[in-house]
Amino acid sequence: MSLKIVRRLLPEWGTTYGPPGDGPFPAVMVFHGSEGAWSGWSHRNAVLLAAHGFLAFPFGYSKGGNAWNAGSIEEVSLDRSVAALTALRAFSYTNGKLGVYGVSRGAEHALLLTALMCRDAVDGVPDAVAAHSAPDVVCGAFDARSYRDSGDPGWQPWDPSRRAWSWRGSSDDLMPTQPIETERYEGPLFLSHGTADRVWSVEMTRRLEARLKAHGRTPEVHYYYGQDHIPNSDGENDHHDYLISFLQRHLIA
Predict the structure, then answer these.
(1) Residue 1 lies in a domain
(2) Exposed, middle or buried: residue 151 (CB in 10 Å: 0-12, 13-18, 19+)?
């Protein structure tokens, strides 16, 4: 029996997952959240996409970490993300079409990266963008070593002096609470959010949807009623149906 999903190395960057054969396939870069690159969730999401015909690359952007520690999201270079996008688009197994998909901090990453590339006219803007449980503003740095649940005596809000992202060598323009200028992107955009999300309020996506429509954009938006930050089985099945349909419509020539 032949493999239905094949791992391939994107030289100098890491593992991709895709269908068997030589392709070419539409590509999707998958951004993990604060759980970090080692947790396996972004690889699991990449495998789901690979099962539906995409060459998916789970991009590990967090700093440090290992199988027991998620590492940090602090002063993460979005320029490095652009370089990874460029490498993926040029990979011999891809058809030249490329989307990005992120959840939570990964959704923030996808939206912010795309907005900055549009603002500064950087080549290689994604052909489609999908973001689940996204904030509508830049968020503060995160370090798993110091994380505490809300209510824990050691819990504290973000320190605004610590910044999650950098662009062109600086984080000065990426202060926490600064709106992500997603309206700069003219391509197909998918947004989704659970209405009972206890991590990122659904109001963030509602505000983003309203701002996009005020700028004449037409995002595809799905609200999953009663679902938390991580949907239950039924919610996740609905989400993947919507997500894969969106990516197929916009990335398969």
Answers:
(1) no
(2) exposed
- Domain containing residue 142: CATH number: 3.40.50.1820
Tell me if 107 is assigned to some domain.
yes
What percent of the chain clears pLDDT 70, i.e. is strictly above it?
Answer: 93
Structure tokens at 99: 């989307």
Q: Indicate the number of domains in the chain.
A: 1
Please check the confidence at residue 30 and state whether its pLDDT lies above 90. yes
Q: Residue-wise over 172-204: b if at least 16 C-beta within 10 A, else e? A: eebebeeebbbbbbeebbbbbbbeebeebebeb
The CA dihedral of 181, 34, 11, 67, to the nearest 10 degrees, is: 180
Q: Confirm if 74 and 164 have CB atoms less than 8 A apart.
A: yes
Q: How far apart are CA 42 and CA 164, in angstroms?
A: 19
The pTM score is 0.94
Range of 218's domain? Answer: 6-251
Cβ 226 vs Cβ 202: under 8 Å: no
Residue 37 CA neighbour count, 13 Å, CB half? 16
- Is the torsion defined by CA of 197, 136, 16, 169 positive or negative? negative
**Residue closest to 100 by CA, chosen among 92, 115, 184:** 115
- pLDDT class for 101, splitting at 50, 70, 90? very high
| Residue 242 is assigned to a structural domain of this protein | yes
Looking at 19-167, list the stretches that DSSP marks H as alpha helix, in order from N- to C-terminal side: 41-50, 78-90, 105-119
- Are 139 and 161 spatial neighbours (Cβ–Cβ below 8 Å)? no
In angstroms, the CA 89 to CA 96 distance is 6
